[in-house]
């Protein structure tokens, strides 16, 4: 199993927290939360890296490819920022990486449509919800140094989501009816996977305490509600405005069985 070890980078970051009155439960919850973010941000860099060959094959403008290349660096930096928080909390900034399947290639469709599918899944769905969740967490964070970390990460995630919607704006007018129908069918699968992924990482339990919430441990119940609200109020209408059946796909995805409670 591959292992991510950012111990050296975390120590070199020089990040510190003020003296915090935390129970052992609070501290362990916070370390686990930030270590999980460290892993997720690092994996996100790999996902964005998988888009570059697709963009080249689809003959996407080089300036857009450069934007995605910059996003790779931003996600790697987020991983180190999260690792630095783990280190400051007294935890080890290292973890085993889960199995990493390759970024979907969608060989059954052309390069441009295949890239569009991943753009929808990665930027329009996942990054849009990330903006909502991190934005909420930033408002509830106590220490200024920790809020600054979340603010910096949030600014990049906003850029990632906006990139997806902006690219979709440029691509959608050229979709013919058959392409829109195939993308609508794909969105059912994308939404179902997206739902399961988010709910797996947002367990329906409260944070241990208000102190824990102030250092980044989210209330899973509130986060789940925010996830659903973001899909209903932002993602679905955004897809519909661009001629894709977002509402129909989301309702169909919710009817599919899920292994996540």
Give structural notes.
It is a single chain. Helix 1 (7-13) crosses helix 3, helix 3 (62-88) packs antiparallel against helix 5 (144-171) and helix 4 (111-140) packs parallel to helix 6. With 261 residues, the protein is mostly helical. It has helices at residues 7-13, 24-57, 62-88, 111-140, 144-171, 177-201, 210-213, 220-241, 246-255; strands at 3-5, 94-96. The relative contact order is 0.14. The protein is built from 9 helices and 2 strands. The chain has one domain: Ferritin (Up-down Bundle). 72% of the residues lie in helices and 2% in strands. The radius of gyration is 19 Å and the shape is globular. The protein has a two-stranded antiparallel sheet.
CATH topology: Ferritin
CATH class, anyone? Mainly Alpha
Order of helices and strands: EHHHEHHHHHH
CATH architecture: Up-down Bundle
Tell me the number of helical segments per DSSP (H or I, 4 or more residues long).
Answer: 9
Strand order of the largest sheet: 1-2
Q: How many structural units, i.e. domains?
A: 1
CATH superfamily: Ferritin, core subunit, four-helix bundle
Low-confidence segments, ≥5 residues, pLDDT <50? none
What is the secondary structure topology, with strand pairs?
Blueprint: E1 3-5, H1 7-13, H2 24-57, H3 62-88, E2 94-96, H4 111-140, H5 144-171, H6 177-201, H7 210-213, H8 220-241, H9 246-255
Helix pairs in contact: 1-3, 2-3, 2-4, 3-5, 4-5, 4-6, 4-8, 6-9
Task: Compose a concise summary of this entry.
This protein has 261 residues and is mostly helical. It has one domain (3-14, 23-255): Ferritin (Up-down Bundle), CATH 1.20.1260.
